[in-house]
Design goal:
The chain has two domains: 90 residues, Conserved hypothetical protein from pyrococcus furiosus pfu- 392566-001, ParB domain, CATH 3.90.1530; 46 residues, no CATH class. It is 36% helix and 18% strand.
């Protein structure tokens, strides 16, 4: 499938998409798009042949709010209605999990939060629960962390 540019005004929000982002998270998405618009070319919005969004409903809304006039899209014209519905759900399911150990030790928590990652209720840079002198556990998941 080929990525093409389309006018935002030609795209249609999918009213049947059961996923949404509200308030602060939505504002973070708008900010993310403004700061790194290249992401939209790397991860285009997916539409059907009627230009209804199958993947990227919230990105489209955020692009509208950010004032963009066009975005990269992929037309998925060969999907049945059932496949389109399946795509909508599968595109929004989070199959993976975060490795909190790697995030705590190799990433900056302020940047992660600024980029929209919701950290598990503590500042990874300063808050730890000590099991003994050599072990630190994540307060949320209980996973061992290296000293931070």
């Amino acid at each position: 499938m080929k990525t093409i540019k389309a006018k935002i005004s030609d795209l249609k929000i999918n009213a049947d998409n059961p996923r949404y982002i509200k308030d602060e998270k939505f504002n973070q998405l708008v900010k993310s798009i403004k700061e790194l618009p290249q992401m939209l070319e790397i991860r285009p919005i997916v539409v059907n042949e009627d230009m209804v969004v199958l993947g990227g409903n919230m990105r489209l809304r955020a692009c509208q709010k950010a004032g963009l006039k066009e975005v990269s899209i992929i037309k998925a014209s060969d999907l049945t209605i059932e496949q389109q519905q399946e795509f909508i759900i599968k595109d929004n399911v989070g199959f993976g999990s975060w490795d909190w150990d790697v995030l705590a030790n190799e990433w900056d928590s302020e940047q992660l939060e600024d980029w929209g990652l919701e950290l598990p209720g503590f500042n990874m840079q300063t808050t730890t629960i000590k099991e003994d002198e050599n072990e630190t556990k994540c307060p949320k998941c209980g996973k061992l962390l290296n000293d931070v």
